[in-house]
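Hi R.,

Here's the chain you asked about this morning:
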Amino acid sequence: MITRYLIPLLALVGVLFAVRKVAAGYREAVVPPPVVEPPRAPFDAQIAASGIVEPSSEAIAISAAVGGLVLETWPQAGESVAAGAPLFRVDGRDIEALLEVARSELEAARARRQRLEEWPRAEEARVAEARQRAAAAELEDARLRDERARAVKDERALSSEERNRRRLAFEAAQARAAEAEAELDRHHEGTWEPDLAVARAEVNQAEARIRSLEIEFERRMVRAPRDATVLQVNVRSGEYAAAGPLARPLMILGDTQVLHVRADIDEHEAWRFRREGQARAFLRGNRDLATDLEFVRVEPYVVPKRSLTGESTERVDTRVLQVLYRFDPARLRVQVGQQVDVFIEVPAENGPTEGASGR
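And the predicted structure, written out as tokens:
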């Protein structure tokens, strides 16, 4: 009796219970509303692209020409700087010390050149004349002594040694007189031109060395290459600034008087692009904030996609055609580096691509 009726009844109850639980647990999937309403396409036919806001000059990554310890920094992020304004200074005290030595060497070289240019001085000429007269008098005395020695015939009255001494003294007096005469002639003729040329070359060499050191010292001062706004500062006083291109630039500058939008058009849509098509950018996070864009140029080289939006449906294994548009920042308050959604109108008749048409 139990086997015949109870077990099938329990099985039926279990089946009914399972059906009830399944029915009670079934709920129709509810799609949550988007956190931010996406922008509505403004054209009947368009290309959708992701864009990034950048300065009209593009981002200028500032680096140091010479690596070293940073002693001073001046502008802060957000400040405007003029072309040539100092941004930061790298330690150049070793060059300053070499400059002091070079300036001293230049003064010495100039003094030597001036001395040769103004030579001879009147007092030096008078000294040379006096030496010439003294040498002439010594020569006359030596000549007379030698003649008297030659006039003595008796060898017992004057030894041969004394005769030789007087003869040699006369010859020495002749040499000294010739030297004094040449020195006087040199004073009368003035500075020898080759000596003056060497002195002038030494001055030029010293001046060139100073210019070289001044340029080397100026390289320690990093200046703004153009009128721009400081977008980012990644260096502080006391830090070491490495020379050359860096993954994280020491400073980033850019001209923000007019902003550009760099729109990335996927390569499978690039053939539809036309430069004459209107374009409109929508700020992400608020679809009501938008502005019309003015075409600037097409970057004629298709590159791998780098500016990612983070959406799960985004294609990352693709290449993109980059198109630049400009807009007045007063019409849309954005910051450099923000992403925007760009819609580009596609004309009714579409022919071959103009992606490589350039400016």
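Residues 116 and 193 are 9 Å apart (CA to CA).

Let me know if you need anything else.
M.
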